[in-house]
Amino acid sequence: MYSILVLLCSIVSAQLIFEENFDSLESLDSQSFKIKTSGTAKASLISSANGNKAMKLDIESNGAAFLAPNDFSPENGDFFGRFRIQTNFPNDPNFAHWINVQFTGKGAPDLVRPVGGQLVNNQNSFGIGADAGPTGDWTDFDPNVPATLSTRCIEFQVSASGNFINTFFDGEDQPSLTASKTKHSIHSGNKDAPFILPKANAIQFGWQVFQPNSGKFTVMIDDIAIGTDRIGCN
Question: Where do the Cip1-like core domain residues begin and end (predicted)?
Fold first, then answer.
């Protein structure tokens, strides 16, 4: 049911800050990143028949597993990210919130979540959000961008200097999944507080549902890259 992700990545113009497609690794013990888990979550390296590799996360309920690159400090807090993911999503409770990417910045309380989503009335939809900063805990999900089992290539742009976040799914811009100083907190949070992006100095890719739930999640993540320019999915 869960296939190995096929890598068809061609990185040409972007200056890379971090890149990991797992193919050259023998384990997830690496000098370039750390694996962080909680609960009973497990992370493993798996291979396909053609030799390509991916990171597999096995997680129950609200356990968490993330890959965190070392020495992450993009100039001016501006960067692009890209990864491929395939996962199942929670069936309970209603309004369960999950994340795939989260970053933080030195001296700022904000937990910024450019890629995540929420279960609302039996549908999981992708969303963008934050927590712990002046704007509070919010997730702006879009029912028109449903979260399904199919593999997606997800890109995101973070600009601390311009104070905005953009997202792209399978190469297509997602204008509903963006955030800026004034565009945020549609769903909960403090709508009146300006959303000021911190300059990122830590980021992680993976999976967590924050609410206790009955789910067992098999998450496949591959082709992670961070660069100074848009990286692309081809």
Answer: 77-228
- Report field, pTM of the whole predicted structure over 0.70: yes
Cα radius of gyration (the chain):
17
Residue 6 lies in a domain: no
Give the CATH number, domain containing residue 33: 2.60.120.200
Q: Which domain holds residue 117?
A: 16-227
Contact 68, 200 (CB under 8 A): no
Contact 17, 72 (CB under 8 A): yes
Strand locations in the chain, DSSP E? 16-20, 33-38, 42-47, 53-60, 64-69, 78-86, 97-105, 111-120, 123-131, 138-146, 152-159, 164-169, 172-173, 179-180, 200-209, 216-227
> Is 234 a domain residue?
no
Q: Kindly tell me the burial class for residue 189, based on how many C-beta atoms sit within 10 Å of its own C-beta (0-12, 13-18, 19 or more).
A: buried
178-209 confidence digits (pLDDT tens):
999 999 999 999 999 999 999 999 999 999 99
